[in-house]
Design goal:
Order of helices and strands: EHHEHEHEHHEEEEHEHEEHE
Strand order of the largest sheet: 2-1-3-8-7-6
Distance between the termini: 37 Å
Number of strands: 12
Radius of gyration: 22 Å
Number of helices: 9
Largest sheet: 6 strands, mixed
Length: about 250
């Protein structure tokens, strides 16, 4: 049987405010889960400052190895929103005013439109727009790069408009097995189950609760049968080792 192709994506989070700690990124986890539903694996995530060279380098590096690249941040109305200019430079094209984006902004803001707000109609030449149901400024797509807003609510709205529109493979399924056991004491069991079940990945997430050590083991696969077989094998192995497993998270 031919190996199923795995479609991949990278996320580039742009913004000095993220690196300084003033703002916490809330888009990575949401995007990863959204991509999984589309059958696309988030393979890499980077955080870069509001610096032209850093953004250009990250975009070119990621688009060369991933099927899709998503950027968040830096497409607003202020002078330090330089993502459009950086992506245009990465593609070797000029920045132009997109007539449809301009019309959308003028309709949204009315007599409150300003030159600063019109900056959000600037796109790399040849780019398409991504619908924004939350505010007036659209996202941007050029090649395999998708430029989204940094505000989580707006980012999520843009992603909703892309539902089902990206080519992908099989979504990753998951199932959790919990146990009151230190993960270090069952590491050989986890390795054995992974080796017995090709295509299976097991993530171990330890915790301390009520004075006890436990761990949740998240099993991931693109095939339901393999996933369920691995979960049953893991629970059997934990039971045989004297640990009472729970089919689900603790």
């Amino acid at each position: 049987m031919a190996e199923t192709r795995i479609w991949t994506a990278a996320l580039i989070v742009i913004g000095d405010e993220i690196l300084s700690g003033r703002t916490q990124d809330a888009n990575l986890a949401y995007l990863a889960k959204w991509l999984n539903i589309q059958g696309i694996q988030l393979a890499e995530a980077r955080v870069v400052p509001d610096q032209m060279g850093a953004i250009v380098a990250a975009v070119n590096a990621c688009r060369a190895v991933c099927d899709y690249v998503f950027t968040t941040g830096g497409i607003g109305p202020t002078h330090d929103d330089i993502s459009v200019d950086a992506v245009a430079e990465a593609f070797g094209v000029p920045v132009v005013l997109h007539p449809t984006a301009e019309a959308m902004l003028r309709q949204y803001y009315g007599d409150r439109i300003t030159e600063a707000r019109l900056r959000m109609a600037r796109v790399p030449d040849g780019a398409d727009l991504i619908e924004n149901p939350v505010s007036g400024a659209p996202g941007i797509r050029i090649g395999n790069v998708y430029m989204l807003a940094g505000v989580p609510k707006i980012t999520q709205g843009m992603l909703a408009g892309l539902d089902g529109k990206l080519e992908g493979g099989l979504p990753v399924l998951d199932r959790t097995v919990g146990a009151w056991v230190p993960e270090s004491s069952v590491s050989e069991i986890l390795i054995a189950v992974e080796q017995e079940k090709p295509g299976i990945q097991i993530g171990s997430y330890p915790f301390w609760r009520d004075g006890r050590i436990g761990a949740n083991f998240v099993i991931r696969s693109r095939e339901r049968t393999a996933l369920d077989d691995a979960a049953e094998r893991l629970m059997d192995a934990l039971s045989a080792a004297g640990h009472q497993p729970l089919d689900g998270a603790i």
